[in-house]
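Entry type: protein chain
Record version: 2
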Amino acid sequence: MLKQRDIVLLLLFCFFNIQQNLLDLAAASKDLEASTVALECSYSDSTRASQSSLNSSSGYGTMNSTPAVSVDTKASCDENKSQCWKDVENLTLNDAQLLFDKGLLPDRHILSVMVRRHGMKSEIVVLVCENICKTIAAVSSEFLHVFGAYDKENRLHFVVYTETESIQNSELDFDYEILFRSCKRNEQNDHMSIIAESEGELLAEESVALGKTVKSISKRFMDKHKYLSVITARKILSEGRENLCIVMYVHPCTDRYSSIPHTEDPIPTEIQGYKVVVRNGVFKTATKTAAEYHDNLRMGCQITSNHVNGFGTLGGFIDHPEYGLCGFTCAHVVCSSEQMVNLKRNKRLKWPTSDHCSVYQPSQHTMPVGRVVEAIYTEGGDSGSAGVDLALFQIENRPPVSGSFPRCNSNEKLRYNMGTTWGKSRIAPSVREVQKFGVATGITKGNVWFDGMSVRELPFVTKRALHSVDTILYNQYEVVNDIRHFCEQGDSGGLVFMKDCFNELICIGMVNGVLDTVSPFHGVVTPITDILRELNVQNLKPFKQELTLDNLEKRLSEHAAATRVQMQSHINESVSTAASNMLDKMMEVQSAFQREVQSSLAHMYALLQKQTPDSSTKTDGNNSGDE
């Protein structure tokens, strides 16, 4: 009889043989699949060759006649397109392009074979997907963007991004898995997701630590993920736990990157120990239409140029060492798409006198107030510098005469006379409230949540976008108002301020755009110190305040109020100090008194101890005499 060890060895031998047979069977199945495709195509080729030979003998052409073969190829491929994509293993880019030029696409089965054989990111699969996307996009003008993607199960599909939800997959005659997405469709899911994740304020040390990480990864991730629009940081409270997170906003067409572009890797769930949260949302430059004429230019008024159809906000004024009195705003407010492309390539543009880029206030129906002399674009990121999107225009008409802003619906009036600016180091973690004036939203307030935000404007946000330039800006301020939008489209170029202890406005930055999310729009603000550095000036233009009785009373009232606040603070501090000193004194007196009492009690106790033996002796003597 066989021993138990022999039986085990025999079973193991059988198992390995079965496993090897299964592997051989799988390989043979793949070879059979490829051979079947090749055989079908060979049969088609031989049929075409016979037909061509018959045509030649009948006087309709020769065996090498190109027109006859191309006509037959076209007819055969129309009957069975998969036959034209023969020999997938050895298919070259030129072969594939020739088929595309004839309007022939592989079916879903052939495409899946190509992905298995060559890989999702191979040149041949990339070329095929690009042509499929172009073909799908050409079906309707309502298709804003089409791209190839894969899901967590590695299934290849195509995403069609639209502004409406009216088009259905059944309307398309394509043998592929196609997903339709629009911003409207995802808003409810995004809203519920954000509600489930409440956000807390970052402490100073947390903001610094997260800022270093965001700065170190932003360029690499922007390069690797083309649908990534914003990288910022949050403290997120979810399921009773508080986590420091890196938050990445991606284009809604990816549905929080559940559809991963087929040429990319997934976004990691953790970076340098921080949890990564992916949300739908995009950065948009804030330009919009508006109209109101001012006899003299003011900060915050509406401006445009002869190269654009939209409008933005005039930022501030400077006395430039070369151009004299100038105003500035964002470059995308006054530059055309072509100029923005050129600006991104050259980083700085100077306008010749022969090619005017005229600036108007409020519209092109008025006389120009000046002309653009320079435009500047930098991504930032180097040594903590901030990206800048900036245009400088020389003022030729209607120069500013005061630091007052235009009127708005709010009763509050802003006036910026000092020209003073603050950098990042002056923005204390405990006092981060800011306010701005913009064409679209007037005066709004918010808080600086993060000072290391990275943003990118994607070129396919909407077809109505003014520019289709892939613009990236690093190290921006993120400003948030929990109740309303801090800024909207039309506010680009508007200055952002804090207040000092005397209630004077201090400029800290300029609005560049918005983070478009389902929650109130977050403002994206470029630090003013980086803008001044690019303009080669130290400060903004100061204005002498008009000496009127109203102004004088207002100034006295403001200074009196500020003085009262400071005096009350000093009094409270003094009272607190005096009370503390008095308490210390009382404690010292009480301690000394306790020590004295304890010393006296100890002394009295010692005296009593000495007197007790004499008293007992006298008592004993008296008793013996009586006896």
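Comment: Residues 549-626 form the longest helix (78 residues).
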